[in-house]
Amino acid sequence: MKFKSKLYISIFLLIIVVAIGVAGYMVISDDTFIDSLYMTIITMTTVGFGEIHPLNEYEKLFTIFLILISIIVYGYTVSALTEYLANGKILERLKHKKVQQQINNLKDHAVVCGYGRNGKQAVAKLKNYNMPCVVIEKDKQLIEKLELDNILYVEGDATNDETLIKAAIQNAKSLITALPSDADNLFVVLSARQLNKDFTIISRASKETSCSKLKIAGATNIIMPDRIGGEHMASLVVIPDLVEFVDELKISEKGTANLEEVPINKLPPEFLNKTILDLDLRRKTGCTVIGFKTPENEYIINPEATTVLQANSNLIVLGKPGQIQKLHQIL
């Protein structure tokens, strides 16, 4: 029997005993409701207060009966409460409530479905970028690791809408689904897109045939880890220096980065509809603009200085870690 059910039964039994006591005294002693309730409570609690009036034989027998059933119910209640506390259910519920409150307060965070090999790598990268994230996981052993690493999580099945809602998906900026099954990832993408129409969804896929289905379901990008791994190994054979150089540009474990994406919408309003030359990042920060993403999601490599900074477009900036930090301070 569940601990919670035992507690509910205990409360129900206590109410029944009070009802029996009140009804019994009202019938046997012809007392008022208040007097009967008083006699019931002092009898059940055995506090030792005096009776309202001397008891006759029938009233004494009923009082003895009430004391005996009260002791039995008390014993059951104490047993249920002790078992509940011994198993840490109350502390666990309080902890989960605190974690859920933290999740509800998040905004523009990432939701990661699955804390397997790919999910763990995704969380580590998000932490390096100081981006808040919530992991959805149902494996008890992996949940213990999440708790040890102090990572916010929701215990449950990511394919359920209720679980996604608990992860505050309505306020999320992106979702990464890295479940082992393509079918589960497809289901997560479908549900997530219905709950949040505008955010970015990145899905893992194992088979080529799943990519088109995930795109139709609403995935923004689809990653095939096996294919990426093979391509990366081949590139290390063909163009090793170039691959290693690009890897150096990525964010390191220490949280330093050489590449940064700058949304035009987050720049000061005076730069909107101005040019890259007007922004003058090279002189102000030492960073160099190496790419431009148009509002139509087209990429321009090494854009001209006369490129207009339109709303809903992004700049791709290259610089040393210190220059990137200066970029954040200024913009």
What overall geometry do the principal axes of the alpha carbons give? Answer: elongated
Class from secondary-structure proportions: alpha/beta
Order of helices and strands: HHHHEHEHEHEHEHEHHEHHEEEH
Please give the share of residues in helix: 40-55%
Extract low-pLDDT stretches.
none
Using only C-alpha atoms, the radius of gyration works out to 32 Å
What is the tally of helical segments?
Answer: 14
Average pLDDT works out at: 86
Distance between the termini: 59 Å
Largest beta-sheet characterization: 6 strands, parallel
Q: Largest sheet, order of strands side by side?
A: 3-2-1-4-5-6
Instruction: Count the E strands.
Output: 10
Measured by DSSP, the beta-strand proportion falls in 5-15%
Structure, explained:
- The mean pLDDT is 86.
- This protein has a 6-stranded parallel β-sheet, sandwiched between helices.
- The chain has helices at residues 3-28, 33-45, 57-86, 89-104, 117-128, 140-148, 161-166, 182-195, 208-217, 225-238, 240-249, 276-279, 281-285, 321-330; strands at residues 110-113, 133-137, 153-155, 174-177, 200-204, 221-223, 259-263, 288-293, 299-301, 314-318.
- Helices cover 54% and strands 13% of the residues.
- It has 331 residues and is α/β, with parallel strands linked by helices.
